Amino acid sequence: MILASPIETPQLLLKTIEPSDVGSRYLAWLSDPEITRFLEVRFTPVRSISDIASFVQSVNASAHSLLLGIFLKEERRHIGNIKLGPVQVDHRRAELGFLIGEKDCWGQGYMSQAIAALSRYGFDRLELEKITSGCYESNVGCAKALLRAGFMQEARIPSHVLFEGRRVASLLFGLDRPAASPTI
Ligand SMILES: CC(C)(COP(=O)(O)OP(=O)(O)OC[C@H]1O[C@@H](n2cnc3c(N)ncnc32)[C@H](O)[C@@H]1OP(=O)(O)O)[C@@H](O)C(=O)NCCC(=O)NCCS
């Protein structure tokens, strides 16, 4: 899916990733063990910029997933990505995944803003009724960003993933479409 015009938050622009956005910084994010620590991509390392370019191109071409770059509005700096999809059309539901690759941008509220803004877009424009996400229990930053964006923890699956040599739980989060305001 391609986004016709960027989604704006107070500090961010979320927009479709162009080929010119895929470069050495993006490859460095996915090659940094501190960034991929909690991500499945650590099991299948990304080796080249062209691997990333093919991934971006295939998601942009898909009818059911929306992959957006997260850009600082003022600097136009690409700091991370957020993906909504695949959309389960029959269930009006989609999954959210995300990362901030520029580590100096962690802990500044950016992901909470991005999650809230893309969720709103999903409800308003893609007619979703539920958005889900999840993380390892040990990924405190991720869980907090989801909660701060309005998600609820809906489940804890014990012993679900292998993380740094031990089994840890996964947490599942969900956000229901807000009820429409009554019209008088
Ligand atoms: C996890 C991640 C998405 C958080 O994004 P972020 O923009 O730093 O999150 P926010 O600034 O919106 O923070 C939300 C809350 O989490 C806290 N937080 C952020 N990173 C944290 C960390 N590593 N440890 C503990 N708390 C953290 C923030 O202080 C904030 O707390 P508050 O609500 O009490 O103020 C980001 O650090 C990241 O992309 N990490 C690497 C990849 C990854 O783990 N992705 C998620 C996979 S599920």
Q: Which ranges are low-confidence, i.e. pLDDT below 50, for 5 or more consecutive residues?
A: none
Order of helices and strands: EEHHHEEEHEHEE
Give me the CATH superfamily of the domain at 7-131: Gcn5-related N-acetyltransferase (GNAT)
Named CATH topology of the domain at 7-131: Aminopeptidase
Separation of the first and last Cα atoms: 36 Å
Number of helices: 5
Average pLDDT for all residues: 96
The profile of the biggest β sheet is: 8 strands, mixed
Count of extended strands: 8
Q: Give the spatial strand order of the biggest sheet.
A: 1-2-3-4-5-6-8-7
The ligands bound in this entry are: coenzyme A
Helix and strand content put the structural class at alpha+beta
CATH architectural type of the domain at 7-131: 3-Layer(aba) Sandwich
Q: Specify the overall morphology.
A: globular
Topology:
Layout: E1 7-8, E2 12-16, H1 24-30, H2 33-36, H3 49-61, E3 66-72, E4 78-84, E5 93-100, H4 110-125, E6 130-136, H5 140-148, E7 152-163, E8 166-176
Parallel strand pairs: 5-6
Antiparallel strand pairs: 1-2, 2-3, 3-4, 4-5, 6-8, 7-8
The protein binds coenzyme A (COA).
Give your account of this protein's structure.
The radius of gyration is 16 Å and the shape is globular. With 184 residues, the protein is of the alpha+beta class. The protein has an 8-stranded mixed beta sheet, with helices on both faces. The longest helix is centred in the middle third of the chain and has 16 residues. It has 5 helices and 8 strands, in the order ββαααβββαβαββ. Helix 4 links the parallel strand 5 and strand 6. The chain has a domain of 125 residues: Gcn5-related N-acetyltransferase (GNAT) (Aminopeptidase). Bound molecules: coenzyme A. Coenzyme A (COA) binds next to strand 5, helix 4 and helix 5.
